[in-house]
Amino acid sequence: MPASKTPIYSALAANLAIAITKFVAAGVTGSSAMISEGIHSLVDTLNEILLLLGIRRSQQPADERRPFGYGKELYFWAFIVSILIFGIGGGVSFYEGITHLQHPEPISDPHWNYIVLGIAFCFDGVSFITALREFNRQRGSQPFWSAVKRSKDPSTFVVLFEDAADLLGLIVAFLGVFLGHQFNNPYFDGAASLIIGLILTAVSILLARESRSLLMGESADPTVLRSVAALVERDDTVIHVLQSPSMYLAPEEVFLMLVVDFRNDLTTIDINQAIDRIRTTIQHEFPIIKRVFIEPGGEKNSAIKPHAES
Q1: Whole-angstrom distance, CA of residue 42 vs CA of residue 38
Q2: What Rg value do the Cα atoms of the chain yield, rounded?
Q3: What is the pTM of this model?
Q4: Each residue of 197-210: pLDDT tens digit?
Q5: Which residues pair with 243 in a beta bridge?
Q6: pLDDT tens column, 53-105
Q7: Is 241 strand, coil or helix?
Q8: Which of 37, 94, 222, 235 has a Cα-to-Cα distance from 122 of 20 to 30 A?
Q9: Are 199 and 169 in contact (CB under 8 A)?
């Protein structure tokens, strides 16, 4: 089921508007936590742009340089996004927090911070709900964490976790500003920046791990592969499916290789006709399998030239 771009556009608009207001509030109040939050929103805005770039590039048709298409562009850019969250978002938040702890400055008037944080929480909340609805539509009845691990579309869970980090960061920033002003202790503000940095680092590690797995090449679901094998073995010419290695080339594109043991009494022409028929059947029943490579196996079959989809 193809993912919708709506959560990405929603997060892009929200983060851009929020980043501007956060920087204005930080300039007025001098809050370290607000600067960290502004940088966080700015990085998220860039992340959404990179995800849209990855989606666009991944949809390019295959050519001579990339005979299997450009689907993994999305996985690459999702990995870059996870690095940016850590390197820029988390890194700058740590820097701001440490700097503010070394040179604390009390917040004179926190009202601007409260107003901006409230507005930001509303915008990020709407964006989070939009992303969560899309993710729930994608995962169906699967448990949440199982769906994250099995998801082949990083654009869905990257936006979801970004928005979750946004909301947690806003809560931490609010507590830093409130406690710092309430107790006249600027160290709360610096500590809030460090906690925001930890949140961003944790999210970036999670996203980098999932994106790396997709970039390295994940297999199709074992249930799907078993169904394909059962479908192929129903053909009169087939004895058994020996191997079925597969790999996701894009969220909605699977490459499948089948090593099939055909009946020994078949001629080469019979096997070639069976291969064409089996391929057509597989792609009709499983539209996500875009490319099928079928290789005859077994003692007699091994001498027959493999058949690949053009």
Answers
A1: 6
A2: 26
A3: 0.80
A4: 899 899 989 999 98
A5: 259
A6: 999 999 898 888 888 889 999 999 999 998 888 778 788 888 878 888 888 87
A7: strand
A8: 94
A9: yes
